[in-house]
Specification:
It is built from ten helices and no strands. The protein is mostly helical.
């Protein structure tokens, strides 16, 4: 499997792990994707194989309850904010500059969040799906990848992942957070090495 395909699939898998859990999607999309990645040699293999997918409707329903408790703002106070703006623009801000930057990247690619999802562009699922889209281009979108990764995902997902691991009652989300943290860290190191530049350069590109 080509490197950009692996990166794309890892980001898609991580996005799916933090989407609202639905039995069909877990069983027929995420589990096969994890199985494929788990059979591909690489540093991601252990984290992917460690994912404890639910077995049966009762476990899936339990994940749904935990998803609502952890992430769904409509339920009131939640232990873990899934929006980049919360972590980057101040914890009282959910629709700030970082969201608009992600919107600009999406617009440049002719993309927008699915209206049915009800998720803002800086939701962890949307940013990871956008990263997967950019990675799928095989390096052709490297500047946009760099802006999204260095100025967004790599800056806020470590805090997000730690908050998940500290607050979740389900091993599924603990394993998902570990995989996401490792995936973003590897991508950050890869882009820095391949492009020979730093996150500060991406800041300048974003402000240009």
């Amino acid at each position: 499997m080509a490197e950009h395909d692996i990166r794309m699939k890892l980001h898609l898998l991580c996005a799916g792990l933090f989407a609202e859990p639905e039995a069909e999607h877990l069983e027929h999309v995420l589990r096969p994707l994890a199985a494929e990645l788990g059979q591909t040699d690489g540093p991601w293999q252990e984290g992917v194989r460690a994912l404890p997918f639910p077995e049966g409707g009762r476990e899936t329903a339990q994940l749904g309850l935990e998803y609502n408790r952890l992430f769904v703002l409509a339920k009131g106070h939640v232990p873990v904010q899934p929006y980049g703006g919360y972590w980057l623009d101040g914890k009282s801000t959910l629709y700030g500059p970082s969201l608009r930057t992600v919107e600009r990247i999406m617009a440049a690619e002719g993309l927008e969040p699915a209206q049915a999802s009800g998720l803002a562009p800086d939701h962890v699922v949307c940013e990871l799906e956008l990263m997967a889209h950019l990675a799928s281009q095989g390096g052709k979108k490297a500047p946009l990848e760099k802006t999204l990764l260095f100025n967004h995902l790599a800056r806020w997902t470590p805090d997000f992942c730690r908050a998940v691991m500290e607050n979740t009652r389900e091993e599924f989300y603990c394993a998902a957070a570990k995989l996401l943290e490792e995936t973003v860290a590897r991508d950050e190191a890869r882009l820095a090495a391949h492009m020979g530049r730093t996150a500060g350069d991406a800041d300048e590109e974003e402000q240009a």
